[in-house]
Amino acid sequence: MKILASIEVERVQRSESTYTFRCEVMELDVVRVMRQRADTYRNRYYYSADVKRPARMHPDARSYGRDESVVRVNIVRKTNPKWKPPEFPDGINCIEIE
Question: What are residue 9's DSSP bridge partners?
Answer without folding.
Answer: none
